[in-house]
Amino acid sequence: MGRITRRGLLAGTLAAGTAGAMNGLVTAGTASAAEGAPGVLATPGPARPWHPPRPLEFRGVWLATVSNLDWPSQPGLPPAQQEAELLAHLDRAEARRLNVVALQVRPTADALWPSPYEPWTQYLSGTQGRDPGWDPLGTAVREAHRRRLELHAWFNPYRVANHTDPSRLVPTHPARVHPDWVVAYGGKLYYNPGLPEVRRFVQDAMLDAVARYDVDAVHWDDYFYPYPVAGQTFDDDDAYVRYGGGFPDRAAWRRDNINRLVRETAARIKQIRRRVKFGISPFAVWRNAATDPLGSPTTAGVQTYDDLYADTRTWVREHWIDYICPQVYWNIGFQAADYAKLVPWWDAVARGSGTQLIIGEALYKAGNPAQPPAWQDPAELSRHLTFARKYASVRGHCFFSAKDVALDPIGAMARVVADHYRGRVRP
Questions:
Q1: pLDDT tens, position by position, 228-251
Q2: Has residue 186 got a pLDDT over 70?
Q3: pLDDT surpasses 60 at 10
Q4: Measured on CA atoms in the order 107, 112, 118, 122, is the torsion positive or negative?
């Protein structure tokens, strides 16, 4: 099997335990009055913002902005139209009885908020660095919470551009100010994960949004080191010479770079807002069993441990992250990577770790004539949820992507809702 990943399908541009129910009328009081002295009224305080209760079942959708995949429908729309389209996505999530929206807020080393680190994204105004005239992330957080949805801020740590021409970036872009931070590979530009200054910078850039906005989680997708491109080499020679001493080989050093990014980001999130979760959605195959006896019964052409230098199994077992959402984007019975074999494998990995397991679902494949026959059956996705319910570690599902929730050409999402989401999940 060759590389199979949702982001790889984007036409060359790409490839949530209860924390306590709260509502908008909860007021602050002293702990001693509220908890230690029955019958004593708490001192009134300012109204707290509403935070969605931790869902008993994660029912999520990815809302992608890179290349205007889901939203906005095109760059350069008036602010009012952009906002209307965003609210329509949130309304639809609410109507489908979902409870989490993962909004892509840093698609290509840019921002959907007024970041002091990186420019406004071109996918809003049409021009990188141009203020779109409104606050998309602030609006998304406020309006998601109004609809009792969690808003997970989805970041891509290292992708800089879907091209290799730095001159197309705004002059003040960090990738132009620090050209030594950047590697061109596979027709794209990436920050070099091997540089400590890059690792610190991308954390600063992402966590600025956590400090500024009441997001419910930091969410990453499947890009760490880039997916392999035949005949090309990711040129990190200088960084390896400078920082690779003490590692048995370059692969071990690269994995350590990504592990450091994960551990450090997790710690910094809790320093900023302790209740904010950290979740990652990797390609679903850690390693094939033929490569490693601890691996899954798959024959995938990509293994995150070996090819992306992402040791996803360790992140779960060591509980460095709050949830893992592997992209199990294959049908039940698919020979190289069977949904019915990968879900039990991930269940065993997550069991007892404290890391929640969410299954990423390929809604975009349902009804696509280029996909295998199983995906032409409107009941395939519903069967996935029925199957996954047998495994105790599975806490829910997330669907890629928002436009497919809207279009739903063969009614696969409608079938999921009818079969599994008959009421809204509440603590």
A1: 999 999 999 999 999 999 999 999
A2: yes
A3: no
A4: positive
- CA distance linking residue 424 with residue 96, whole number of Å: 9
pTM of the model as a whole: 0.88
Q: Is pLDDT at 36 greater than 60 in this prediction?
A: no
Mean pLDDT, residues 279-283 taken together: 98
Determine the length of the chain.
Answer: 427
**Residues 96-122 pLDDT 10s:** 999 999 999 999 999 999 999 999 999
The answer, yes or no, to whether residue 1 has pLDDT greater than 90, is no
Contact 182, 189 (CB under 8 A): yes
First-to-final CA distance of the chain: 41
Confidence tier at 425 by pLDDT (50, 70, 90): confident
Distance between CA atoms of 64 and 62, rounded to whole angstroms? 6
- Residue 169: CB atoms within 10 A of its CB come to 24
Q: 3-state secondary structure string, the chain?
A: CCCCCHHHHCCCCCCCCCCCCCCCCCECCCHHHHHHCCCCCCCCCCECCCCCCCCCCEEEEEECCHHHCCCCCCCCCCHHHHHHHHHHHHHHHHHCCCCEEEEEEECCCCECCCCCCCCECHHHHCCCCCCCCCCHHHHHHHHHHHCCCEEEEEECCCEEECCCCHHHCCCCCHHHHCHHHEEEECCEEEECCCCHHHHHHHHHHHHHHHHHCCCCEEEECCCCCCCCCCCCCCCCHHHHHHHCCCCCCHHHHHHHHHHHHHHHHHHHHHHHCCCCEEEECCECCCCECCCCCCCECCCCCCCHHHHHCCCHHHHHHCCCCCEECCECCCCCCCCCCCHHHHHHHHHHHHCCCCCEEEEEECHHHCCCCCCCHHHHCCCHHHHHHHHHCCCCCEEEEEECCHHHHHHCCCCHHHHHHHHHCCCCCCC
* pLDDT tens column, 138-163: 999 999 999 999 999 999 999 999 99
The single residue listed with the structure tokens 């019975």 is: 333
